Amino acid sequence: MKKVFVFFLLASSLYGGSERFYDLVVSNALSLQGRYSFPARDGKRFTSDCIGFVRYVYYLSGIDLVEVYGNGRGGVSSLYDGLLKRRFVYTNILPVSKGDLIFFDNTYDVNRNGRWDDPLSHVAIVIDVDKHGTITYIHHSPRKGVGLDYLNLRYPQTYAFRMKDGSLKVINSYLRINRGENLSRENYISSTFFRAFAHIPVKEVE
Fold this sequence. Notes:
Blueprint: E1 4-7, H1 19-30, H2 50-61, H3 66-69, H4 75-85, E2 89-90, E3 101-104, E4 122-129, E5 135-141, E6 145-151, E7 160-162, E8 168-170, H5 190-193, E9 194-198, E10 202-205
Antiparallel strand pairs: 1-10, 2-9, 3-4, 3-9, 4-5, 5-6, 7-8
Helix pairs in contact: 1-2
């Protein structure tokens, strides 16, 4: 019998759920690397941006995130507000689970006023966490399409570690383009823009 996943609406269920579901989220996300757009499914359309990517991945995995923010204004902020209302948002240094969401502020100048005053401008999906706390995440970028990048909140001022063989191991990818703001390079890495994680708890039903 086909397995169906449903998300909980109670914060008390925050750490419950099905490992199979989160594995499916990660698998579906990775299968989309290099894509810039996403086809309609079951009459539903998905925008060619970060929120469209996240919605598409979760939809393929069995959950329509529109159910989270209903008929709101759409976009990253609506998804965040819906998850926050259900107390699924958290601010740990490490994510609860692969497949969790990462929300970022100020990743680009949304209102085009030249200031860094653009909350909830980007969202991504957690793929993995290594022993040093470096989070591999996947997201949609207008420049690169769907691809992998890195975030490490234990070392928020560090772009990369120098390895013994002389190579660099990136732990905080660049997430915003320098538009001549005269800021140091460290201001443009992922940790600078981190706002919160979100975990959507699910249960598996027949």
